[in-house]
Amino acid sequence: MLKHTTLYLLSAIFLMAACKPKGAGDAVNSDAASKVYVAPGQYDEFYGFVSGGFSGQLSVYGFPSGRLLKVLPVFSQNPETGYGYSEETLPMLNTSHGFVPYDDLHHVQVSQTNGEMDGRWVFVNGNNTPRVARLDLKTFKTVEILELPHSAGNHSSPFLTENTEYVVAGTRFSVPDDGVEYPIHTYKDNFKGTISFIGVDKEKGDMNIAFQLEVPALNFDLSHSGKGPSSGWFFFSTYNTEKAYTLLEVNASQRDKDFIMAVNWKKAEEMIKAGKGKKKPAKYAHNKWDEHKHSATSEIKNEVLVLTPDQLKEVCYFIPCPKSPHGTDVDPSGEFIVGSGKLAALLPVFAFSKIKKAIENKDFDGEYDGFNVLKYESVLHGEVEKPGLGPLHTEFDDKGNAYTSFFVSSEIVKWNVKSLEILDRVPTYYSIGHLTVPGGDTKKPYGKYVVAYNKITKDRYLPTGPELTQSAQLYDISGDKMQLLLDFPTIGEPHYSQIIPASIIKDNSLKFYKIEENQHPYVAKGEDQTKITREGNKVHVYMTLIRSHLTPDNIEGIRVGDEVYFHVTNLEQDWDLPHGFAIKGANTAELLIMPGETQTLKWTPKQTGITPFYCSDFCSALHQEMSGYIRVSPA
Ligand code: CUK
Ligand code: CUA
Description:
GO molecular function: nitrous-oxide reductase activity
CATH architecture of the largest domain: 7 Propeller
Largest sheet: 10 strands, mixed
Enzyme class: oxidoreductase
Signal peptide: 1-24
Pfam family, one: nos_propeller
Subcellular location: Cell envelope
Number of strands: 44
Strand order of the largest sheet: 6-7-8-9-17-18-13-12-11-10
Bound molecules: [4Cu:2S] cluster, dinuclear copper ion
C-alpha cells in the first residue's frame, strides 16, 4: 500500500516536472488536419518571423502549415551561405568588442505604419552583446546591425513606435557606463538603467541612436508602444525594484509589486529637439549592408545624446505591478495595458485614460529613486482573477479578446479585455513562453490563429537523445473555443514572433540582383572581364559563374603564403539560380552567390600542390562539371 502511494507521488512529481497539464490527452479534432493542410504548390496565408533564440538567427515559417521556409542569418555565422565568413559579410558582425559571431535573438517586430504592420522591414534584438538588427523584406537579408552602448542584456528590445519613428531598447542588466568599474556591492549607488531610442529613416530604414534615457537601476524586461489614445507613450516592464545584485531568484522577488515604467517619449523627443540632450562618450559599432556593392561596412561611433534622471521627472512614471512583471502588452485600442507578473496570482489591466488623469492630478503614491509612483488603484482598469500560474505574455485578436500565456500551468487563457471575464483555456505542450496572434500586438490584429512557443519539448516528437528540438503549437482561435491544430519544431529557442498576411510581403520579394546594377569593386560583369591581378602577396581573382562553368577554371602563378581573394560573380539573371563556391582545405566556408551578386572568399594556401575548387550547389545537369584547379607553387 505504502509502496503504491510512494509510486503514485513520485509519478505525480515527475508529471509536474514535465509540466504536463492534467488531462493532456492529445484531443485533436478530426478537422484539424484539413485546417493546416496547404496543398502541394499552394502558398501559406501568413508569413511567420520566428526568433531563433540562442541560435542568433531568425526563421521564416509559413502558416497555417507550420512549414519552415528559411533560416535568415542575423547575428551568427552561417556556413551554409558564407554569411559571417565572406569578406563582404564579415563587417556585419563587428562590434566594439571586435568580431562577435553569435548572439541570443529574442524579439521580432515588423515595421509599422499607423500602428499596422507594413511589411517593409523586420527588427530583431541581440540580447547578449547589445545589438539591434534590421532585415529588408524585399531580400530577406540582414542589412543593418547597430550596437547599443551603456547597455547589457538588450532584452526589452526592439519594440517599435506606431510609425516606426523609433526602435526602442531597454537594458535587462543595469550597469555603470561602459568601461567604468565599481565594487559590485555599490550597485545601488553606481549602477543604472538605460533606454535607447533609435531613430529610423522613413525611406531607407537606416537606424541611428537618437538619444538615450538614463533611468534607475532596474531590470528592463519587455516593452510595448502605446497607440491611439496612448500614442507618444512607451511602457516597460521592470523587475528587481529590490536592487539585488546577488541571488536574484530570491533577492529580486521580495516585494509584492515591481513597476511598469510609463515613458512619455514625445516629451523626451521635444527636449532633445530643444537641445537639452547631453553628449556622452560611447563606443559602438554601426554596420550597414550596401545592396549595390553587395558589401557591408562597419563604423565605430563614439558619442550619444542622453537625458539624465534629473531631467526625466515629467517623462517617466512608475506604475506598481504585482510580482516581477514580464510582458507588458497594449491592446489594439491603445487604452489597456496588461502587466504579467511572473509570480502573481492575478493579471492587472491598466487604463491609459486613468494613467493620464492620475498624472494630471498629481495623484502620486510617493517616489522611487526620485520618480513619481502612480497609485495602483487609481490607474487600474481591473484584475483578471485566478487566470492561471506564471503569466508571461499577452496578445490580442480582432474581437476584443486577449490571449495570455501561462508558463507554470502550461496553458493559454482567453479573456475579454473590457469585462476581464475568462472565456476559455487550452493546455500547451509544454511551458509556453511567448505567443503570437497575427498582428496581435498592433492596432490591426488579424485573429484566426495563435501560436504558442514553448520552453519544454519532452515527448512531443521522436526522441533524439538528450537534446530535443524546440517546439511550438498552432491553435485555431476563430471560434469561441480555441482548438489545437498542429505541433511544429523550431530552430534555437523560440521567443517572440510576428505573423503577417503573406499578401503584404510576397509580391515585393526580389527575384535576383540586376547585374548591370552591381557596384561591387571587384565585379566581373561578363567572362571577358575576368582576370587575375597581383599586388605584392595579395592576389585578386575576378571570377564568374554561369551554368555550368567557372571562369577562370585553371589558375597558376599562386605561391605559398599568398593571400588569394576569389571575387566570385554569379552571372545568372533568373530566379532561384544560385551557384556555390568551395575550395579544398579552405578554413572559411563555402559561398552561396545569388544571381547578379559578387561575394569574396579569402584563401591563404599553406602548401604546394594542386587544389580543386567547384560549385557546391547543384545547378544544372552539368553541375558536376562545374569545377577547376589551382596550382600552388613554392614561395
Ligand atoms: S522572453 Cu522568451 S518567453 Cu526573452 Cu520575450 Cu518571455
Ligand atoms: Cu553551379 Cu553547380
